[in-house]
Protein 1
Amino acid sequence: MSARDEILANLRKLNLAVPMLPTLDADWVRFDKPVEQFATMCTAVGGTVVPVPDKKAAIATISALPVIRDAKRVCSFARDILAGNVDLDAESDPHDLETLDVTLAEAILGVAENGALWFDSTFISQRTALFIAQHVVLVVTKETIVHNMHEAYARITSPRPGYGVFVAGPSKTADIEQSLVIGAHGARSATVLVVG
Amino acid sequence: MSEATATHSDHPKRATAFIKDHTRAQWHDQALWFVRTKRDRAVDLVPEWQTLRETAAAIKAHTVARLPDYLEQFEANATAAGATVHWARNADEHNRIVLQLLQRHRVSRIVKSKSMLTEECHLNPFLEQHGIEVTDTDLGERIVQLRKEPPSHIVLPAIHLKKEDVGDTFSEHLGTPKGLSDPQQLTEAARLHLREKFMQAEAGITGVNFAIAESGGIVVCTNEGNADLGCSLPRLHIACMGIEKLIPRIADLGVFTRLLARSATGQPITSYTSHFHGPQKGGELHIVMVDNGRTQIRQSDDYRRSLACIRCGACMNTCPVYRRSGGHSYGSTVPGPIGSILSPSSDPAAHRSLPFACTLCGSCTDVCPVKIDLHHQLLTWRKDLASLGLVAWTKRFSMVIASFVMARPWLYRMAGTWGKRIGRWLPRALLMKGPAAWMNPWVRSRELPPLPAASFREMFRKRSRTKE
């Protein structure tokens, strides 16, 4: 018997009463001011929040960011905001991104309760870029901010195709004596522009 | 099995070594308590915390009951998404599957993000024996890997080390200046060192936090971004999971992602919560599902609920025994309260001291995000160990005496009265030193409380009389 069949057969030897799978329609937390809550939580998880009135202002603000001005290689998944200078197509070898300075990406949604942003492979053609860049600049539109994770997953429904990720602030660790250090393996900073 | 010949992880003995350095033990206690308070602050901000816990427990109870169905559903959907699913009865099969995959792809260097399952299966030494270089990429895990130690905590693998220890380790292995102990600079050194490893790796191994039956996807949570770098740079991604990681629906993630990071470190969510449905373009995703004793735990009405564990580590951070004895004292992959339930299931004789490394205070049960009745299960284990004949004679003997006395109220009264009197006359040395200390470890580092003038019984009698 294969391992698969044996594991399944052993599990099926025991007939357990099956308790109901709970519905997920409780009164989950909602905020009076979800955008402010998002900004608070995003800051708490180490992000730098910059509110801007519209996309045009976002372009100006991003171009003026020190991380962008100092960058030699910028990869952009939001070309309407900034073109970047790294040609990204999914076929290219992700190892070429080793010297990437900044990645710019626009989130599909933001979550007020924890400051997280959702990205998936519909827009992120080369996911390594989100993690290998020294800094990330992330854009989220006010209207896409939901209250909590339940609402977020309801919007995502199926986190396909391929790959999706919640990003909350920069990369961090507290593995040495519980001291928080920003910039473990991934981004050393996360600038989050809230548009609207 | 006789006491003398048994090789088992003796918690009290290892803990004795740990607490020898009193200042350090105290520091360890405080470091973990700090994490517990961070958890409390995060939890207090969620008004529906108890509802979340109940919902999570109910989802897990349902899933465990229908586990074979969900495993099949997951396999079908993961395969449809382009992943390859493997099944392993035990650690040995798991390790062989991983090795075969690596050999087939001619891999000689891999990077691995945190996976307690691969620790449980001892994958690293197995792969190293076969000439494969394994680099743990979680900072804490890399530190203990360089020191050739096992992790002492499932979320904070190097919590037992001081920054000076890390400085020494890095100076020896990564060439940082001697005496450097600034966490910021040490982390930077590890970042540069591990970047190189990421770039060279030909395959990435990750654990799995949640596997979604209805979509065939897996979810991996990290703060450092090491899992994502490790499985997006190389073309081959191997994800290793225990069969209990299943959840039925994508929507269930709403519940579990809200509970996990808050319980673990007090963060509202991990920095990265990555969802993989199938491999990346041009790559391969292999998912290895491992039983390794889980089916057996599922068969027990007493311990089945322990399969709901999401490995947040909250029970360790709050446990007064864990905090004061350190993770290595447990001698098992998963230490602390949950480890003391899971480990004896695989080998009761080897881990028989663990259910006794517990004060039954119940703090673990209070903080568990999936409502596992940890301290009840630990108590049940003591009973089971006794019926297996695995309890030390000192514990058995004292229980025999105690039940003999307690079953005879006259004897109990007499023992109380005379105990008090004799206790007051006897020199302190006779109660605290020598044979007394040998028989009663309690007095080795503690003073006896002053003996009361009257017993409760006597006080109560007197009080009733004056009332009349």
Protein 2
Amino acid sequence: MISSAVLWIALEVSLLPRPATPAPTPQTYRISGVVVDAQSNQPLPSTVIFLLTGSTEPTEIMAAELTDAEGRFAFENVAPGKYTLNAQRRGYAAQAYLQHENYWTGIAVGPGLNSERIRFPLQPSASISGQVFDEGSEPVRAANVLLFEQSLENGRRTTRMRETTATDDEGHFHFGHLLPGKYIVGVSAVPWYSVATPQVEEDDHGDSARTDDNLVSETALDVVYPMTFFPNARELPSATVISLRPGDVEKADIRLQPMPAIHLRVKVPTSDPANSSNIQIMQQLGEGLELPVRTTQRSLGPGVMEVTGLPPGHLIVHADATEGGNRTTQTQNLDLSGDSEIEASKGNAEVKVSGIAKMEDGSGLPEAAVVQLRRLPGSGASFARCQPSGEFSFENETITAGPHEVSLPNPDSFIKSLKATGAKVFGLKVEIEAGKDVRLELTLARGMSSINGIALRGGRPMEAVMVLLVPQDVENFGQLIRRDQSDSDGTFTLKMVPPGRYTILAIEKGWELEWANPEVLRRYLPGGESVQVGPDGIPSIKVKVQ
Amino acid sequence: MFSRSFRSAADVGFLFAVTSTAVLCTAAFDANGANATNDIKTAFEQTTDESDHSLTGIVVNSVTGAPIRSALVQITFSRQLSTLTGSDGKFKFEGLPSGQTAVSVRKPGFFSEQEIHSLTNTQRMFSTGLDSAPAVLKLVPEGVIFGTIRGEEGEPLEGMNVRLTRNSFNSGHKRREAQATVQTDETGAFRFAELIPGIYFLSVSQGEPSAPGLRGRIIQPSAKGYATEFYPGVPVATEASPIKIVPGERKQLDMLLTAKPLYRVGGAVSGYAAGQNVGLQITDASGQPLAVGSNFNPQTGRFQIAGVSPGSYTIAAAVVGPSGSPALARKQVIVNSDVSNVQLRLAGTISIPVIMRTEFSTAAPPENGFPRRLAATVVLTSVDASSGGNHSLTRPSGTPEDMTFEINGVQPGAYSVRLEPAENAYIYSAKYGSIDLLHEDLTVDSDTLVQTIEVILRDDSAQLSGALTLDGRKAAGAVLLVPENAPRLMKLMPTDSWGAFEFSVLAPGNYKVLGMDRLDDVEYSDPEFLRKYLPKAQEISLSARQAVAIQVELIHVGD
């Protein structure tokens, strides 16, 4: 398993000339095949093909060449082993052979293995472009356009923000190089004529001294554009999902409608020596999707702050407040539809999480051990570095109530057991409660192994199937799931597996499956191979493809 | 509380003197600006009973005359008032006291005339009235340059750097100023908007290698790449075609690039001590550093730079970091095959002392206890082609207490010296030893003794203002002013759109004044140009502290 970012770094290296082939060994083989359009099956000439060593963590580019007029490529004098093929062509997404998410099929080379006549299908990329207009049908410049992608990621249906761009002087935006999939486009912009923010005016004129009566805003121009999703939805779930097929060129024009800006007064405790609050406002778009809101803040006098430029909707307010000499950040979830007032000191204080990690056998901790705390569901995570003593603390991190998963991203060690005071523990999950600080106790152990195996259908090796390693208590130990995609000889490798009881599944087209859903997974578990992994791993295993 | 424009109106009292209340008149003529503004506010508050005045107007496109809808119009009385124009471009503020206000107008895609003519920074004032004539406010439409960059087979080139520079005028000097750099998109397209009218130059160069995570960028596995080209397809900046943008213009510029073989440039660096860090940089003809890999062996001094497309480059080596005295070496190389023996000899840089003396025409008392002082910025521009023609170093560093400075890090070579005096001062003389820097270049090398640049500044400047005329009517253009005894100090300045110009700080002496109908694309410092047109110039003599207003007939220059 490897992220595609790492692969890209590796590809940069190709700019420097390299010897084309490795030193010939007594017995060498050939990797050859043809690159075709995944849709039309037409051969693709002038495609750049890279040959990299290794099938799961390729680091070295051995050779690069262009396909000929019939789309053919061939690498001669290849030593036995596993390799990765990667292709790039204009109009197509850069991809490894049969790539799905961050997994692909490696090419196995050796006696009796077929590494020739490879058919490498390339997915044409698609694009979404459009124009953003204001209420008067005039283009909106410099609007922030966000592209969300709905996909199955790690077997879970997720919506995540993929990239952002800004509109040009004609209101145009363009997202290119998109793989087939489901996309949502959203626009966040501020009306250019908005006079909701007197401070901005001051900057324009270079004036700093203003009296309060100057700040009376003219309501007609004190407006905001709410976050708007294609074609004109206010909320992410009601946005139109754009389904892109390979090569699609889709249009997504969006019209913005201004709404009166909401003014939020934030009262700061009078005992607060700073008498002001650092206020950060996020707009909640969906599960795990938050976007900072551009606001203007000013003091309305002792102990009162005003935040202007807010759109209506679900907002998360993070405000500093000092009470009893203790400065904390309070989080409040608001559903605003008009001007409101809140108190900075009310709300859910962020939870402080700390703890200690110890090796089971009393030995020293692995170098640079880091504990990760991930809010469930969602993708945001907090990290804390362990001191040599094993002490760790999530400082300067926003941790709020809810279920969290504790993990230790480390190649040598794993969490053998987890205890906590101040929170309930379920396996490697903790249920954090509001206003209750948490102390964690991690017992770590060494001894993870790699599991090798082969995916078989009717007794014959099968390439490009998804291989899953599922722990027995998947509900509470979901982080122990491992994954691979079988190589051209049907073999796979599952890395970093702690001892325990597991089921190994091989599923054809598994990446189209919402396998992280326990309901879905339950259907496949009986067809898998049950294994007990000890500290020394297990011998190579055969798994039937479902 | 008041916008700046409002304050400046009070400062120039006479603009303000149309009103009925005695209080306001007194206030407006008060010499003390701060008090005046306070009193004016009081005056308005007292007259709010008679808030029956209004201000109406229309916002129009300066080129087409068409009304501009949804433009933001803002005025300032006791507070800022804002409104949007209707679909007919008209606006109306009601319930105002009588008085005058500056009116500011904004609309995306347009500039105010103030933004375009830096000379006309005086705000126009408008009177409120019971039934006053509508104010006509013009906005100047932006220019746009857009286009597509393609390869020889017509394929769009993505991720190319497209760079736009603009001729700008700064204290009478023309220079190319970077406007923006963008990258071409998937379709090879680029676009620059919000351009003020003027002369632009466009160049295209190979983009940096794709960043990790950026999908779909094609990496050329072959040994070919794109060299920096200037529109319309020339390799050097001096051959680039000027691109003239007039208000509201949308200009499409497409370029076809041919991939060229990439070469290696190698050589050796000498003149550094063991343990010193040496940095290497290669810049193209547009002055941009190339994003190519280089390696340098500190033991042997050998370096090699791979992936250089044909063209003209400057290779620079410098001792970097705190390890010893600064040293630099620069060499220009023309690449049209592998270049193997570039010798870069690091030489210590030179520090040139500068003494700035001021001669005051009157014995004035010290300001705030400090003696009065004038200052100037010294700009050394390399005239040596081998250093790439880059502007070298510049501002004085050091303490200004004794008015002695040092210009550090100067490489041996020849420089033209430009002096930019601060407001109110002019250059009376500038010498380097026996060299008169107003007439000659400055040459420094590490072998001869470094002398001192001595500058004398004076404050008894003269002033020249006026207007250009064509057939008896005022006309916009540019004014070239050439001092008779120091042609190097010639100044060029665009007039405002009504033909007015002003040189506020000039050395007393004799001048030639040329009114020209073109500005951006004339090589005004070219001796050929001067020989041809200076005889047509008007001659004028300015004495100390004299303010002269003249009318200059506009002449047609160029083809």
